[in-house]
Amino acid sequence: MIREHLSLLGLPDGSANSLSEVARLRARNRGSTFMVGPTKMSYLLITGRVAELFSPLSQERLWRDAMFFEDVSSMPFPGTYSDEGMATGRFNPSYMVCLTSCRLIEFPSSRLHELAMSDPAIALFLARMANKRHALTEQLYGATRATPVSRVAAVLEYLAEPRRFNQVKHRKTDGKAVMTVAEEVVASGPSQTDIADSLSLGRATVEKAIAELRKVGALKAFGPGERTNCTYPVADQGLLMQIALGG
Fold first, then answer.
1. Structural domain boundaries in the chain
2. Do the Cβ atoms of 30 and 139 come closer than 8 Å?
């Protein structure tokens, strides 16, 4: 399973095999934490949503699957997350909080370093994952003149994914209740406080932005008794993306 996940991210079969031999698959429940830095481990998030908390800067970033977190203290590859830490002088650990149930691939950073030094495809993979991280950091959490509504929409659009669920419907022909499978797009995991902290906005500002997104039809408006904490069903993904882009 680990090799298949790595192959889906663009690693050649031989490189994926090499990494899978030193990796372990980990499952973590919502609310569990792990650290990148002193533990000498690196992680690839393959399912779920996490909040990354930086100490002592009190910064927060929200991430979804297919994000790589390296040990910044031991892997100085140009362009990688480690290189970012060295360039900024930030060697403080980052703490990860699982906002949903998560699955991660765990790598000993020392072995990851050895493999990257001997296999250009793995080194390129790390650089590519770091470039993705940098681009998303700039796009979602960097300084911008975009409105709070647009910024909140961008974070929710990034976190959103299709989700299937069972629901009971009544057949038109005879009115009999039958179980069917439905699908909706949902951004789940962060609280409004998490979103506010990641964007350096006030919680009231984020609450107003989400209310506006529901009002214009980008997010689903909840009826009485339907509201679910940390879950934001998308009513119109195209409109949400348009608002995220400033439209």
1. 2-140, 148-244
2. no
